């Protein structure tokens, strides 16, 4: 006869009365040294029953109207099992705001929560299950918990009811970051930036962060190198009735890993649209406007009164309908008899009836599209700045070009606008991180031979395609969790390899690029083996195909402190290696920073 499946009790009250709740514990780990600091206590129903999972338990309790009773029973079961197992560290217990408030409302002492354990060993986690009606009243509960010796935590921060306002008002001792922000943080720049913002706020408020939902090594190392204090997740251990006492070897090795994380860069969002402030407001010329019924004489009088004004807007009510350019208007009026003939005519006669309108909240990226438009009149006329469609001022074409140029130059320092790879500032920052951690790495400067003649022959558009192809080849050659790829500018790239297989990866990039670059040439040039052109002195020269050269500098582990000038010294050494690689038939040269410029073998034995 098959074994009978255990039956669930007839109700949550019966389950509690029969003491059939089981406690499970998941470790909370110090990401600095791997020590288990404590455990989150979780609850399970009878094994094999429909109420075994916590989701089923609480759904059933919610339907029966006894959720808070289940929370109290779950806490008691966790405390009892925690004490019986003799676990070290702190015990994290989950309670909703409703359950905690009910304790106060019933007149019971908050110490009743800690029957069987010293309060200073408990951290009460406020779950997201219910909102707090009156935060000020609830703050009395958190004060009572702290007075008893316990600590208070916000659970699942960034999700549901766990908001920044709650953080500010309750000032928790611990904040547990919701797993949504932790999963794939190693490859998601926005999640990375969100957690970094939480980290800054935690430092300001004095709270300790716990990253929930760590499930892989890459995410763990990013969090470790960010300086997040603690972590929790399946990578360390699943909830178990027998609490884990020491971390597994895989988790310990990940925490001890010598390579540093490659932080994901929000490069595609670091362009001109990332300019701070309201650029249209900064470019605004505060100028009076004329009503639609105004005459050309009114325009002339205004221009004579305000000699610095480049244009005047014509409005109907508060809505701009036209723009009169000063130079074009005054040139017409300088003609014989124009003032006498046209002075009393409507000013719309000499106006641009389709002026460029820019909302003052518009980003520079949005305004930059004007620079590529067919209608370039705005460069002379300028443009009208509006606030929700209402006229507020004018802008000049010159100021727009200057703003776009300045922001793009600044943005290019962070991300190359062609390949979207990190620019000089992130490159320098990553080198400094490598040196400060004394991590061993290979700095590889990448350059393309014969790229300028190709660019001259085929044009910049085709040249850009070659650069994008090179960026893709290099990206494919890198391990994104260990190797940092940046675009210095033009046809210069820099890879900071931490992969042990860096040598094979570099060779693979050279071979793949050199083969693929041929497809960018015309059939006749491929047949001829290159292109005819002129060298820098104007002499007729035959140029072979574009090829990749990589010069590498080896920085041994623990030798980073020798490079007092930091990233500049590393980049200079790599540039020396690159120049040698461009002269070497193999295209790959390695020098050792500790042994001077002596050449090392370039091919694997």
UniProtKB/TrEMBL annotation:
Residue stretches spanning the membrane: none
Region (Disordered) location: 583-605
Entry protein name: EAL domain-containing protein
InterPro entries associated with the record: CBS_dom_sf, Cyclic-di-GMP_PDE-like, EAL_dom, EAL_sf, GGDEF_dom, Nucleotide_cyclase, Rev_trsase/Diguanyl_cyclase
Molecular function per GO: cyclic-guanylate-specific phosphodiesterase activity
Lineage per the UniProt record: Bacteria, Pseudomonadati, Pseudomonadota, Betaproteobacteria, Burkholderiales
UniProt cross-references to PROSITE patterns, sorted A to Z: EAL, GGDEF
Biological source species: Paraburkholderia tagetis
EAL domain mapped to chain residues: 5-253
Annotated ranges, domain GGDEF: 439-593
SUPFAM superfamilies found in the cross-reference section: CBS-domain pair, EAL domain-like, Nucleotide cyclase
Pfam families, per the entry: EAL, GGDEF
